[in-house]
Design goal:
The chain is of the alpha/beta class and about 260 residues long. It is about 25% helix and about 30% strand. It contains six helices and twelve strands. The chain has a five-stranded parallel beta sheet with strand order 10-9-8-11-12. Strands 3-2-7 form a three-stranded antiparallel beta sheet. The chain has a two-stranded antiparallel sheet with strand order 1-4.
């Protein structure tokens, strides 16, 4: 896992919290593609542009895929390209791209953020935004986060990690959960941690001031539905509550495979 700081040299480049950029990997690539593009969420809040440009933070996991027939391992093109980058290397990017996440303007709103893996990147930007850029946030902020290894918890609740800067905020709490067995997935770890604090999450969901943000691998949606259905009393009751959040534009998610 790498935390990369990228400097965009054009001060005119602007982005909003929750947006992503595309990283262009030069070819040639398999099947003759001249370039390869992979999108990454921006993991920091906006800052005032300087003469030197605009700073972007990216959280990148070095990925590999396994051929189910031959068993051969293939490196992820973009992730390995970025993880192998050295200070001073130049990158070509595209974007920024629109985000499904819409941060409320009301500082009395509650934020319930649920994520796995590198899905924590936009949440880091949101927390920076409300506490460092805006200030005076009155609503409750809760982060539930699951990872397979300690490296996955790069920004989780620990005295020596990034989000520790916000523990003196009375409104902020983060709950991390680490896989306890070698074959557990980050979504399994999330289910474990979320289940331990499900009552608090459910109470927030029922508050009409709460906005829910979900980001991570595809199974995260299944895990969330399972845990919240238990709290709601049935799958149908949870489905109805979730639909209310969607209809009132208080639910947004970014789920990827």
């Amino acid at each position: 896992m790498r935390h990369l700081s990228v400097q965009v040299l054009d001060p005119a480049f602007q982005f909003a919290e929750g947006q992503s950029i595309g990283v262009v990997v030069p070819g040639p690539h398999p099947f003759g593609n001249p370039y390869h593009v992979r999108r990454y969420s921006i993991a920091n809040a906006r800052s005032v542009p300087q003469d030197s440009g605009v700073a972007l933070d990216l959280l990148v996991r070095r990925c590999f895929s396994i051929d189910e027939v031959s068993g051969e391992r293939y490196p992820g093109i973009a992730s390995n390209y970025l993880c192998d980058a050295k200070p001073g290397d130049r990158l070509t990017i595209s974007g920024p791209y629109l985000s499904p996440f819409k941060m409320p303007l009301d500082n009395n709103a509650n934020l319930l953020m649920i994520g796995t893996g590198t899905g924590i990147a936009p949440f880091r930007a949101f927390v920076q935004l409300i506490y460092e850029r805006r200030g005076g946030w009155q609503g409750q902020v809760r982060l539930y986060y699951g990872g397979r290894t300690g490296l996955d918890l790069m920004y989780a609740n620990d005295e020596t990690t990034d989000l520790a800067d916000y523990y003196d905020e009375a409104t902020f709490k983060a709950f991390k959960s680490l896989a306890q067995r070698p074959l557990m997935r980050s979504s399994d770890a999330l289910e474990q941690g979320l289940s331990e604090h499900a009552a608090e999450a459910w109470a927030l969901i029922q508050d009409p001031k709460t906005h829910v943000f979900v980001a991570g691998l595809g199974r995260i949606a299944t895990v969330l539905d399972k845990v919240m259905a238990d709290q709601a009393g049935s799958a149908d009751a949870w489905k109805a509550s979730k639909q209310t959040l969607i209809d009132e534009k208080r639910w947004s998610e970014l789920v990827y495979n």
